[in-house]
Amino acid sequence: MSEMLNYDFMQRALIAAFLVGTLCSVLSFFVVLKRLSFLGAGISHTALGGIAIGLVTEIDPVLTGSIFSVLTAMGVGYVSRAGKMSADTVIGIFYAAGMALGIALISAFEGYYPELFSLLFGNILSVSFRDLLLMGIVLLLALAFIVLFFKELLAICFDEEMAEAGGLPVGPLYMVLLAVIGLTVIVSIQLVGIVLVAALIVIPGAAALRISKNYRGMLALSLFFGLVGSIGGLVLSYFYPVPPGAAIVLILTLLFILTLVLNFFLEKKLQRRGSFEQR
Amino acid sequence: MSEIVRADNLFVRLSGKNVLKEINFSVREGELMGVIGPNGAGKTTLLRVILGLIPISQGRLEVLGRLYPQLKKVRPMIGYMPQRSSYEKNIPLSVANVVSTGLLTPATMLHRLTKGSLRVKEALQAVGMERFAKRYFQELSGGEQQRILLARSLVRKPKLLLLDEPNAGLDFPAQQKFTALLQELRERDKLTIILISHDLISIASAADQLIGINCVMHTHGRPGDLLNCPGLDEVYRCQFDLLSGIGRGRRDRK
Ligand SMILES: Nc1ncnc2c1ncn2[C@@H]1O[C@H](COP(=O)(O)OP(=O)(O)OP(=O)(O)O)[C@@H](O)[C@H]1O
Ligand SMILES: [Mg+2]
Question: Cβ-count burial of A252 within 10 angstroms (0-12 exposed, 13-18 middle, 19+ buried)?
């Protein structure tokens, strides 16, 4: 175990797993409560188009990918808030279009096939210092936004109409939340890849919501599950021949199933206690 | 300021369609105005216009002493309970948490809510739910949740309360209790209330004045007169034998 820490690339990978795990699980809280799971999957797939543009034009792919996914997120938010089209229709279209653009560009320049593979399935062992810095900055931005506007965001999750009637700037807060989710997806792609990144911003919160009815508990559990998944998956892939991305998502899925079972027994126990009291 | 809301020849267009036309009414302090009309008549739209969430295309609207384009400023003085079903039922919040979201305004952004817990306690007391403060909102029944949402709309001590079908989904005794509760709040706090309901019988007995809208305002008057008058048939575009009977019944008693 300690030998693992002797490798530079492994140290960086562990720090990356910690940063991304924290980032994704905190946002997961809002993604689950505001029902944005499909948006997460949509953003990550459209990002392929943006990243491919960066690769072939030799502008920084992280930059073009970020711009692309933030614009997608805010575009979807705008269209669905205007109420003319449902969000999942818009996401469904963006999703495929972004993927198609990415595949077309990358095929046109055959030399990029190896990049395509690591984009789709992640490449955490190649994390550079610069990548870590980027993850750290996005994490700080996201935490600052959430800490500053936590009660307002919670009120928006509960009911947008009531929040708006109280005079809260629901539109701007929602848009910034979407932009933060867009950035999170981009920096997380390195960890698990485009195909699996949605799991990282959905499962921790979904599992936490199964066994906690209190927002503090849900937030803490979501963080716990996210970190166990991301760091645990990485360690697992060090000892066994499983790619880190797949290992992380499998651990998260297992945790989710565990919470389902736990939830089932908790409810049963409550029911039994309930019927006992009635007697 | 005894006139709380006043609409003069109000028109509202949404996506190029006139949703409300020629609306005229005035609500005085402490009054309860009932709003009736069929589905799609524009009742919810009327409340959202009063909150300044939707622009008006013609006419004049005054709310709590402010004229139309400035309605945003009075939003913190208005309590609003939207039509049922818009809220997230699985929210991991306690009842007290849910009620305290009603305290949030632009002025409380970036600040901690001070004195929040006292306000929340009072609001829960007002709806008779103080024992539920620590329970989880998602574990309550629909009717209990309605009461909590009423407490939420009261927590800022509003001058004007806008209720959009608060009775929907409540059983008969719960509806009666809810109506009694509104009367009590009105008497105690001089609260002005605009209430939308499809339950014509109970709204007629609770309201001081009743307006019937179906895009255009067809009727306007005291509840007893209204349920008797021919305008009601036009509001709902059908004959109202049952209700005119009830309207007559009320008058016979007097
Ligand atoms: N954003 C919008 N854009 C276009 N039309 C709208 C919009 N919102 C509402 N409408 C239309 O305005 C009309 C009135 O809607 P509103 O929700 O006010 O009805 P309502 O009287 O509250 O009905 P219900 O009893 O079903 O609640 C409907 O025909 C509706 O289709
Ligand atoms: Mg309505």
Answer: buried
Q: Name which of B90, B94, B106 is nearest A214 (Cβ-Cβ).
A: B94
Cα–Cα dist B178/B123, whole Å: 15
Look at B92 and A164 and tell me if their CB atoms are within 8 Å: no
Complex ipTM: 0.87
Give all domains of chain A, ordered by start, each with its CATH number: 4-195 (1.10.3470.10)
pLDDT in tens, A33-84: 999 999 889 999 999 999 999 988 888 888 999 999 999 899 888 888 887 7
Q: Cα–Cα–Cα angle for B28, B31, B34, nearest 5°?
A: 110
Looking at every residue in chain A, the average pLDDT score rounds to 90
Nearest ligand 1 atom, CA B165? 27
Quick: pLDDT tens for B162-192: 999 988 877 788 788 888 888 888 888 889 9
Report the residue count for chain A.
279
Question: Pairing mode, if any, of strands B192-196 and B32-36?
Answer: parallel
Q: What is this structure's pTM?
A: 0.89
- Partner B contacted by A220 (CB < 8 A): no
Cα B119 to chain centroid, rounded: 21
The Cα angle at residue A241 between residues A240 and A242, in degrees rounded to 5: 95
| Ligand 1 atom closest to B15 (CA) | 4
Q: Are B228 and B243 in contact (CB under 8 A)?
A: no
Q: Are the Cβ atoms of A151 and B102 closer than 8 angstroms? A: no
Cβ-contact B143, B152 below 8 angstroms: no
CB contact under 8 A, B98 and A161: no
Ligand 1: atom nearest CA of B43 is 21
Give the distance (Å) from ligand 2 centre to CA of residue B81: 11
Pocket of ligand 1 (CB under 6 A): A 83; B 14-15, 19, 37, 39-45, 83
DSSP state, residue A206 = H
